[in-house]
Amino acid sequence: MVGLKEELLKSIWHAFTALDLDRSGKVLSHNLCTVLNVPHDPVALEEHFRDDDEGPVSNQGYMPYLNKFILEKVQGNFDKVEFNRMCWTLCAKKNLSKSPLLISDEDAFKVWVIFNFLSEDKYPLIIVPEEIEYLLKKITEAMGAGWQQEQFDHYKIALNTSREGLSAWELIDLIGSGQFSKGMDKQTVSMAINEVFNELILDVLKQGYMLKKGHKRKNWMERWFVLKPNSISYYVSEDLKDKKGDIILDGNCCVEALPDKDGKKCLFLIKCLDKTFEISASDKKKKQEWIQAIQTTVNLLRAGSPPPHKEARQKRKELRQKLLAEQEELERQMKELQAANENKQKELETVQKQLEAAAARAAEEEKKRLQTQAELQDRFSLELEREKMVRQKMEEQVAQKSSELEQYLQRVRELEEMYTQLQEALEDEKQARQDEETVRKLQARLLEEESAKRAELEKWHLQQQQTIEMTEAEKQELENQRMMKEQALQVAMQQLKQLELERKEALEQYEEVKKKLETAANNTKSWKDKVAHHEGLIRLIEPGSKNPHLITNWGPAAFTEAELEERQRSWKGKKATSE
User: Any stretches that span the bilayer, and where are they (predicted)?
Assistant: First the structure.
């Protein structure tokens, strides 16, 4: 919708600038609503075009009303030619040249519409030389004539020196003057303009007579076919007055060549989703051209691309914008360089002035220097005479001093020899002291080592004495332990003998107690408490254990192995306590 709005604005701009808006703005708005199929809004129209000076058209201009109430409501369901013709009618009378032209008013109208299509998107509208060349080439090719590039280059140079491009009316004058169509009659030029108009404005990609096979009666009828970006329309004749139908194209359509049949040649087939159309061209060349044109159109629909002439126009605009941006960047850089050069020139001028001032100061200083040099030369001459006299006196004094100096030098040499000898003696004395110090340090180190060894020997002697004393004490302690162990062993042997006697008695008592179990149990408990109080080692006489009994030299033991271990621990505890 943005591209459509721009195209509409260009035609409206011509009509807008040609009218007295205060008196004719309502007429223009009404006509626009009519041709664009936009609903009329009389209230908004009257409000915007109030007669007082405070009305919106006085303060805001015409564009806010045009955008809000007309262009934003355009849906695209209008006749572009009728719209352009209405705008042309409003502006042509005022702007069209009064001088006779080689083209008709209808051709001038078509050139005006083509201008709006090719002009730049800035106001006032102009067509740049590149687009003029493109249009003139298209018209020349349509006329079947050769393109005169050299002639146009001269025209382009003359044009670039005076302006950026041509207005619509200047373009009409250029084409109407016949400057680039010499030798062509008016009808040929008109047909060429009409062909370019159909391609660029009406999006007619190809047109011509062909035979079409009917769907119902299957008869062949000659029709005028017009190929557009999304359809093929066919008419009774090329005046386009009696339209017979449309073939709607989309990405699913395809076109195929057919073999000759039924006496018809140069056949091809157009397949759509709902219908299939059989068409016969006049010759093989036309057949191939139509197949290629239809296939190209279908491919563009599949890719979603615009028609070739619109895509080419967009690419030319983008290229011009790119070149313009590069040119502006180059101009900006040139301005920066120029400014830099001007600054450098100013700096050079400043430096030159400084050099001139420095040269003047240098000349003045050179003059003063020469004057000063002359004065100094005179003064130097006088001083030189004085110096000569002083030098003679000084030479006499120097001769006298020389003899004194020789004597002094001889004395110095003698003193130097004495100093050298004294220095050697001091070196010898120093070396002797160093040797003495070395010997003294060695003796001190030996004394320290001897003291350390003596202290170590004394330490070893004390450790040996302590070891001997500890050995004697340990020997005495072991002897005491042996005596205690022997005593404990004797006590244990006595206790074992006593226990053996008690075991024998217990066995005899066990035989008696079998008959009276309850009384024996009580007696056994009392006896167990008594034994535990005295010894804690004799176990109760109970039914024999299943574990094997210990055997002693005096017979079966009266206690288990666990009780024996407990007895041993008790002995060790008593021994430790006694120690």
Answer: none
Three-state SS at 36: coil
Name the β-bridge partners of 104: none
Three-state DSSP class for 305? coil
Question: Is pLDDT at 393 greater than 70 in this prediction?
Answer: yes
Residue 345 CA to residue 351 CA, distance in Å, equals 10
Report how far residue 162's alpha carbon sits from residue 155's, in angstroms, rounded to the nearest whole number: 11
CATH topology of domain 206-306: PH-domain like (2.30.29)
> What does DSSP say about strands 254-258 and 243-248: parallel, antiparallel, or unpaired?
unpaired
The reported pLDDT for the residue numbered 114 is: 92
Q: Which helix (H) or strand (E) holds 33?
A: helix 21-35
Q: Are 129 and 156 in contact (CB under 8 A)?
A: yes
pLDDT mean over 154-169: 83
Mean of the pLDDT values across residues 549-569? Answer: 65
- The DSSP annotation for 469-529 comes to HHHHHHHHHHHHHHHHHHHHHHHHHHHHHHHHHHHHHHHHHHHHHTTSHHHHHHHHHHHHH
The per-residue pLDDT for range 244-263, each reduced to its tens digit, is 999 999 989 999 999 988 88
Cis peptide before 548 (omega within 30 of 0): no
| Cβ neighbours, 10 Å, residue 575 | 14
- Closest-CA residue to 166 (of 229, 233, 262, 95): 95
Q: Using one digit for the tens of pLDDT, what is the confidence trace for 104-138?
A: 889 999 999 999 988 888 888 889 888 888 899 88
Q: Please give the single-letter amino acid code of residue 307.
A: P
- The helix/strand/coil state of 226 is strand
Q: Between β-strands 243-248 and 231-235, what pairing exists: parallel, antiparallel or unpaired?
A: antiparallel
Determine the length of the chain.
Answer: 579
Continuous segment of H or E residues that includes residue 234: strand 231-235
Task: Give per-residue pLDDT as tens, 284-297.
Answer: 999 999 999 999 99
In angstroms, how far is the first alpha carbon of the chain from the final one? 121
Where exactly are the structural domains of the chain? 1-95, 206-306, 307-423
Q: How large is the angle between the packed helices 105-118 and 129-143, nearest 10 degrees?
A: 130
Residue 105: exposure state from Cβ atoms within 10 A (0-12, 13-18, ≥19): exposed
Q: How confident is the model over 404-461, as pLDDT tens digits?
A: 888 889 988 888 888 888 888 888 888 888 888 887 888 888 888 888 888 888 888 8
Q: Which two tokens stand for residue 2?
A: 């943005």
- CB < 8 Å & 24+ apart, contacts of 223-231: 225/279, 225/290, 227/290, 227/293, 227/294, 227/297, 228/202, 228/203, 228/204, 229/203, 229/205, 229/297, 229/300, 229/301, 229/306, 229/307, 230/297, 230/301
